[in-house]
């Protein structure tokens, strides 16, 4: 039976993990490779690396990181963050990334999704969608690290991304991100029903029950979180044991 | 031990090279017929689209070479599907015809998304490739097309109906999942293959 996936997300800058990671027994918590290997051992199903480097060396640093991670890691990983061209994607995939996520570049020029899917196959193209709730307009899509409202409806954009050939949607609720009050069940459920590709839910995870809810009520295919894993608030194994007790298929 | 990885521009082979490196094994990425024929083991990975893969194999004459190989051979993901007779992908594409299956697309439903992406367990395991493994073991899949179950099937997975997770005909073994991305279980399968 296909299992629900648990995905820790690591923010990286200049090849180092950021957002203080508090892990006992990890000599260098800023080393993405060591952290990735630890998560893999604990039972993470995949990893996401979000690169927030903003220098001219960005691409070279990210390619080097991908190579280092792929050399060590025997589970799949996605890289994202400011990726905008076919040649960026090619360099990352050829050096061992399993999937590449695109966000602002896809909204600026949606045809990029078609081009990437045709060139590399849908299976490795993830469209990351950042959504924020407005009382008047509902869920709207934001770009440029959440600073710019595109005015596009979240469900409609995710459907378009899927039709253009995305292989997966990484849906982050900016309204929930950082709150630890749980995932945005309404928009996650709406997107999951609107597309026939897998949907990764992100933003708001604070407890094990939040993951149960997003799988059972919003039909997400995977749940992504950062700080609750990095700060050791929830162990991946104990999370998966909780999910299994709730009748959710997981890999243990 | 000489290991050849067939080079037909079939996508990301770096992960497979790294997986072999972790096992302390050197491999050569090549399309050279003599090198492939002489190798002790042949690996045939693949990602992407079947029609363009077949075009590249034909351009290099590999469509004629591969069926004649006699050493242990392991197809991975698209490299498994290409061993069949025909696929629905690319508006209908003729394949290598080494195994008697026809590749079809999963019907996408709200409950069963396509691609079939993630960790699924293996059932009905048989043969040396799966020595030491059981139906409790999970491997990583990413694919939209599949080979139905037949007499050539040596492992099944279900999505929701059973399909071929692995197939075999004589020296030709192939797996639909990514051995190089399936944690310790995938490593064991690669090791089992290298011992053949």
TrEMBL record, chain A:
Domain of life: Bacteria
Pathway: Amino-acid biosynthesis; L-histidine biosynthesis; L-histidine from 5-phospho-alpha-D-ribose 1-diphosphate: step 5/9
InterPro entries in the cross-refs: Aldolase_TIM, His_biosynth, HisF, IGPS_HisA/HisF, RibuloseP-bd_barrel
Subcellular location: Cytoplasm
Catalysed reactions listed for this entry: 5-[(5-phospho-1-deoxy-D-ribulos-1-ylimino)methylamino]-1-(5-phospho-beta-D-ribosyl)imidazole-4-carboxamide + L-glutamine = D-erythro-1-(imidazol-4-yl)glycerol 3-phosphate + 5-amino-1-(5-phospho-beta-D-ribosyl)imidazole-4-carboxamide + L-glutamate + H(+)
EC numbers for this chain: 4.3.2.10
Molecular function terms, GO-annotated: lyase activity
Entry keyword set: Amino-acid biosynthesis, Cytoplasm, Histidine biosynthesis, Lyase
Entry-linked CDD domains: HisF (cd04731)
Entry function: IGPS catalyzes the conversion of PRFAR and glutamine to IGP, AICAR and glutamate. The HisF subunit catalyzes the cyclization activity that produces IGP and AICAR from PRFAR using the ammonia provided by the HisH subunit.
Protein name, per record: Imidazole glycerol phosphate synthase subunit HisF
